[in-house]
Amino acid sequence: MKIFRYGPAGSERPGVVSPEGRWLDVSRFGEDFTESFFAEDGIVRLASWCKSNQSTCQEIDRGVRIGTPFARPSKIVCIGLNYRDHARETGQALPAEPVIFFKATTALSGPNDDVIIPKGSTKTDWEVELAVVIGRRASYVEKETALQHVAGYVLHNDYSERAFQLERGGQWVKGKSCDTFAPLGPFLVTPDEIPDVHNLRMWLKVNDETKQSGSTKDLVFDVPTLVSYISQFMTLLPGDVISTGTPAGVGLGQKPPRFLVAGDVVELGIDGLGSARQQLRAYRR
Questions:
Q1: How many angstroms separate the first and last alpha carbons of the chain?
Q2: Model pTM above 0.85
């Protein structure tokens, strides 16, 4: 199943993609895609409801604004240096354990919304990533059962302001949490639609020039390992996001480094999860 939310920011409505590829409004199901939706087997209940009701659901125009595929989660957990080639291009050693940092939930935005270059930014960068959405509360879970806690997968562009991240002291979160720096979507795709989450092609272009071309087969720490590992340190709640890292090709790794400016257009995608397009805009009061 593919689920999404559409409409003006702050007033999104729930939708699904039918088996035939139609975009359908499922507001009559009566629930938004929230923490409680995932916690109460919402995916299963929605799939059952659609079997009986999709023929009467309103079809959605493809030109509508798409929001994040689910309501704001309790946290966005990110993994750093989780692709060998990306660690190499940044001159850092492969980590012995997953590198964990957070991204503020206020950074969330729709997959095709404009991205705002923050005030004072000189080094805004791109990062195509596979994100994992938690479906069941996870605390001290074993790797062997970790995938039972996954609701689905989503495309994420983990925007970063490298000067804030690397040159201003402290942790990486400052360079990761600016408003609009976490566009998610267009869809949350359930695991049954992804034959092998560890073999998905991923790509990113800037102004039509390919910058990143990789595959999730090159993850250092795979999805079950990450879910299990993170759950040893914090409880993952339904709807929480784990962003699993980016392959080589980020702006910081270009020679010379190339960072985003107003007017740039970033396009990205992951096989099975859809694609997104963001235009960069300068910060204005």
A1: 40
A2: yes
